[in-house]
Each structure stands twice: as C-alpha cells, then as structure tokens.
C-alpha cells in the first residue's frame, strides 16, 4: 500500500515509504523517465485499460501462460535442465 504520494508535472506518483518519497522529491527528473510497467499500465500504454488487454499486449496467453509456475513450460524446462545437470555430474 502506498503511504505517500506526490504530483509532478501533472502525474501522480505513489511511494511505499517516506524515504522513497524524499528521494524522488530531491531529484524527480531522474526517476520520471523510468519505464515502470505499473505506471505505463495506468497511463494506458500497455494495450488498454483492462487486464485481458494488458496481458495481450505483453503476449501472455491466459490458459497456456496461466501465470502459475506449477505445470508451466518453465517448470518443465527447469526440471529437464536439473535432470541433465545431475546426469552429467554423476560419474
């Protein structure tokens, strides 16, 4: 949950702590140019305003890319890699 907010050049920025807020306030130009996904989503720069539109923009396919690790292609590749490492390491 954001504990502090500030507005800079008409955009609202949210911060998790007083320290982060103070750092931003000291040098906002250093940080406003950063491409932060959450800010970009709020600004509508990631495909649209709905979750399905954003997932489509990021090329995530709900179903095949179910956003869960267990049972995912990533888990399968990881397990294959670990098995191969173990096989090669065993004399």
Structure in a nutshell:
48% of the residues lie in helices and 11% in strands.
Q: What's the gyration radius in Å?
A: 20 Å
- What characteristic shape results from the CA principal axes? elongated
Content of β-strand: 5-15%
Distance from N terminus to C terminus (CA atoms, Å) equals 52 Å
Low-confidence stretches: none
Instruction: State the order of secondary-structure elements, H for helix, E for strand.
Output: EEHHHHH
Largest sheet: 2 strands, antiparallel
Percent helix among the residues?
A: 40-55%
The strand line-up of the biggest sheet is 1-2
Class by alpha and beta content: mainly alpha
Q: How many strands?
A: 2
Tally of helical segments: 5
Rounded mean pLDDT score = 84
Topology, please?
Blueprint lengths: L3 E5 L2 E5 L2 H9 L1 H5 L4 H6 L8 H7 L15 H17 L2
Antiparallel strand pairs: 1-2
List keywords for this structure.
11% strand; two-stranded antiparallel ribbon; 91 residues; mainly alpha; single chain
Structure description:
The chain has a two-stranded antiparallel ribbon with strand order 1-2. It has five helices and two strands. Helix content is 48%, strand content 11%. The protein has helices at residues 18-26, 28-32, 37-42, 51-57, 73-89, and strands spanning 4-8, 11-15. The longest helix is centred in the last third of the chain and has 17 residues, at 73-89. With 91 residues, it is mainly alpha-helical. The model has no long low-confidence stretch (mean pLDDT 84). Strand 1 (4-8) and strand 2 (11-15) form a beta hairpin. The chain is elongated and about 60 Å long.
């Amino acid at each position: 949950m954001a504990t502090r907010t500030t507005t800079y050049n008409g955009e609202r920025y949210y911060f998790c702590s007083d320290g982060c807020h103070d750092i931003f306030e000291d040098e906002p130009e250093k940080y406003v140019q950063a491409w932060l996904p959450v800010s970009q989503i709020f600004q509508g720069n990631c495909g649209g305003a709905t979750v399905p539109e954003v997932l489509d923009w990021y090329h995530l396919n709900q179903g095949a890319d179910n956003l869960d690790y267990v049972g995912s292609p990533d888990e399968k590749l990881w397990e294959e890699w670990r098995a191969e490492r173990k096989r090669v390491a065993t004399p």
